[in-house]
Amino acid sequence: MNTEPHKTTEKRLLYEVSLIRPFVIFLLVVMHSFTKIAEGGLRSNTYQLPEIYQWFCHLISGFRIETIALVAGYVFAYQSIDLHRKYELKPFVVKKFKRLILPMLFFGIFYYVMFLYIPETFSVSGFLLKWFSGCGHLWFLPMLFWCFMAIWLIDHFHLSSWKTLVLLAIIAVLPLPFYKLPLGLSRLPHFLFFVYGGYFLYEHRHLILNHSLNIKTALSLWVVYVFWIIIRQTALEQTPNLSFNLGAFIWKGLQNSVDLLISCIGILALYTSISIKTIHSSFIPPQWVIRSSDYCYGVYVFHQFILVYLYHYTPIVSKINSHIIPWLGLTIALLASWCLTNLFLRTRFGRYLIG
């Protein structure tokens, strides 16, 4: 059996990535379709997400956005290690600036004007801070930009090791006040672990593919994942009344550690499940799957515009049953964002931004 997971088409695509990327983007849209209803925004509403949907969101939220970060590091490692694409720092910065920061700035203007602009509280400094930090869901783009800068350093200076992985894990779970940092840096400690985790996973993928790649292992990982989700949402959800800062620090660190563990287990479960298929030398994903991977960036960008407008600027939430509205929002968001992406990619400017 051929155990190499990086068979390619003429475009040298990673088949496992061609499957994983659209799946987690789909989960992202699902998650936002359920959770954006209850968020106040400029027009608050009293919608309460049914409890069964809350648990559904817990189950899919444990690894979806972290997997997107991991895929970025995984593809970077593939390009660096197998394709020998070695960039000097300046062209690499320019490339990632065009890929991540320019779309964030372009679409961020529209997001701010449509959903965040309040004349009574507007200030130029506040606007610039939000704009350069990523308006709404676009926060992920500047954060990913800094992750790529860090991964370039790790790759360029050959710093990849188990020690680096452990160090980044420790930094990720420490409850330090990173949330105060602007320009996408606030979430960097958490997601840098996963971007580097993707790099590290590609380097050592043979450990999974040669020793743990079977249905029993995949199912076991999913069971363990669900178990830890239940523990997190029951025993560790509420912060107890702690009268000293050290206790609160330890408790938050414990929560962060469990969250990191849950994400890692979920990612490994997904990667193992997908690789069971892609490891076979005869496996080629359908063309519609490969094409859907090309649409992921656009769907990510457009879907929240649609959901926020739908839920907070139309009467749809008050008109439709609470059990139906998330599914209707999901359907509209997927179809509309897919169509907008298709239209955008038909233009040179659109392909430059999200192609």
Task: Describe this protein's structure.
With 355 residues, the chain is an all-alpha fold. It has one domain. The protein has helices at residues 15-35, 51-61, 64-82, 89-116, 124-133, 140-156, 162-173, 188-203, 206-209, 215-234, 245-278, 287-294, 296-312, 316-319, 325-345, 348-354. The chain is globular and about 55 Å long.
The overall strand count is 0
CA radius of gyration: 21 Å
How are helices and strands ordered from N to C?
HHHHHHHHHHHHHHHH
The figure for the number of domains is 1
Cα shape: globular
Q: How does the major sheet shape up?
A: none
Separation of termini? Answer: 35 Å
Question: Quick check: average pLDDT?
Answer: 89
Helix/strand-derived category reads mainly alpha
Relative strand content: under 5%
The helix count comes to 16
Detail the poorly predicted runs.
Answer: 1-12, 40-44
Measured as a percent range, the helix fraction is over 70%
Keywords, please?
355 residues; 70% helix; mainly alpha; 0% strand
Short account of what is shown:
With 355 residues, the protein is mainly alpha-helical. The protein has one domain. Helix content is 70%, strand content 0%.
